[in-house]
């Protein structure tokens, strides 16, 4: 590679650097107004809390997908991804922001929640049945706090380790840093798998405390990967339209990103179907109730949302990115990336929001509920992008001194 790290075609354009503050300020205001609007919905504080958690989970899962991608590239010694890995590292580096955005939820659970968000936090819940009593041993504010601190600490350590060493290599060109990151990618994979499962079980699955699925952590992981690759394709195309990364990322890289997108769309559908099929076949009331809340007798309310996921989260994008020729068309992949991100939000909405109200007429929580959900996710995503731009300012958008970069620049699909 002949370009220096400070080459303008490797740097974030000034036009994007200048919108950081508007995005951060606007995002913060939108989230605040969204939370307030939720209080005026039929479900009141419950809708507000669930809408915030849905928006938070939507953004968090994108970063988690990026974290896994970065770890796996080091673990597998991948050469093709050296030119796209920095964008993934930037998306991954938003995790500390997500830790800050999770603080209101932790504080609410510890001091104010009386079952509006987590039913297990209601007074006397643990005494209702023997099952409740057993569950209360692991579902309580103290256990929630400990789990949250450990999970966020693991993620922050992983992010800081890979981010710091990758940026340090830009300055020193030290090849040993690549071996160092590769050496710790194995333990990081275990830490990632355990922490994501713990977060999925405690933060999301416990919204319905008596329901359980051993596949739920994998389901959340699958959605994370789909949403991450969707944002990668859209972000890189957006940057290239502004003259950045034009020589470093070409249709061969989009082809591989498209293959990953296609593969994880299939994987998400496989996990979703397997989870549903196994619970349906076993027909255990404690398990089936979760799906019963998401399907009614007719085509209305939550049933429509469930069917829309089958059609629009799996079937349509499945065919859209199946073709090799389509995957090598950056504009096509970028457009479908935006679409897939929207469907990922619908997926998170389907997972979380029924716990705020199972009734079909409360799918959106009325007009104020709908406004609340839209403002929360728009604001949270604006904060997410704003922090991404802030992290990406002043550094090369390619790991310029990575020893595998020449291999990435010459990469061709066979």
UniProtKB/TrEMBL annotation:
Q: Is Membrane one of the keywords? A: yes
Q: Which keywords describe this protein according to UniProt?
A: Membrane, Transmembrane, Transmembrane helix
Membrane spanning stretches: 21-40, 52-75, 87-111, 142-163, 184-204, 216-239, 260-282, 302-321, 333-352, 364-389
Q: What is this protein called?
A: Quinol:cytochrome C oxidoreductase
What organism does this protein naturally occur in? Rosistilla ulvae
């Amino acid at each position: 590679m002949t370009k220096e790290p400070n080459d303008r075609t490797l740097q974030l354009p000034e036009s994007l650097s200048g919108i950081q503050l508007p995005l951060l300020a606007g995002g913060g205001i939108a989230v605040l107004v969204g939370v307030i609007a939720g209080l005026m919905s039929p479900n009141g504080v419950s809708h507000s809390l669930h809408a915030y958690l849905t928006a938070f989970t939507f953004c968090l899962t994108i970063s988690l997908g990026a974290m896994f991608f970065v770890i796996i590239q080091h673990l597998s010694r991948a050469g093709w991804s050296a030119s796209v890995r920095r964008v993934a590292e930037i998306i991954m580096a938003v995790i500390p922001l997500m830790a800050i955005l999770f603080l209101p939820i932790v504080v609410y659970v510890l001091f104010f929640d009386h079952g509006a968000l987590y039913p297990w936090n209601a007074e006397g819940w643990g005494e209702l049945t023997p099952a409740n009593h057993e569950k209360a041993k692991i579902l309580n504010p103290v256990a929630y706090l400990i789990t949250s601190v450990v999970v966020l600490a693991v993620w922050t350590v992983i992010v800081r380790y890979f981010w710091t060493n990758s940026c340090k290599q830009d300055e020193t060109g030290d090849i040993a840093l690549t071996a160092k990151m590769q050496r710790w990618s194995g333990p990081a994979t275990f830490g990632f798998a355990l922490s994501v499962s713990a977060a999925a079980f405690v933060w999301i699955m416990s919204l319905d405390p008596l329901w359980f699925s051993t596949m739920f952590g994998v389901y959340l992981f699958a959605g994370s990967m789909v949403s991450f690759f969707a944002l990668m394709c859209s972000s890189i195309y957006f940057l290239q339209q502004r003259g950045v990364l034009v020589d470093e990322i070409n249709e061969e890289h989009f082809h591989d990103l498209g293959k990953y997108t296609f593969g994880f769309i299939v994987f998400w559908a496989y996990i979703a179907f397997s989870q549903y099929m196994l619970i349906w076949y076993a027909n255990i009331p404690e398990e089936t109730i979760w799906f019963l809340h998401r399907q009614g007798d007719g085509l209305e309310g939550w049933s429509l949302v469930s069917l829309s996921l089958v059609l629009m989260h799996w079937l349509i994008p499945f065919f859209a990115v199946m073709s090799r020729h389509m995957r090598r068309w950056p504009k096509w992949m970028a457009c479908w990336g935006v679409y897939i991100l929207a469907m990922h939000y619908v997926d998170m909405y389907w997972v979380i929001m029924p716990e705020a109200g199972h009734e079909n007429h409360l799918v959106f929580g009325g007009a104020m509920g709908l406004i609340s959900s839209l403002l929360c996710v728009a604001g949270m995503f604006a904060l997410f992008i704003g922090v991404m731009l802030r992290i990406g300012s002043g550094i090369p958008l390619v790991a310029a001194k990575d020893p595998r970069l020449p291999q990435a620049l010459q990469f061709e699909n066979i």
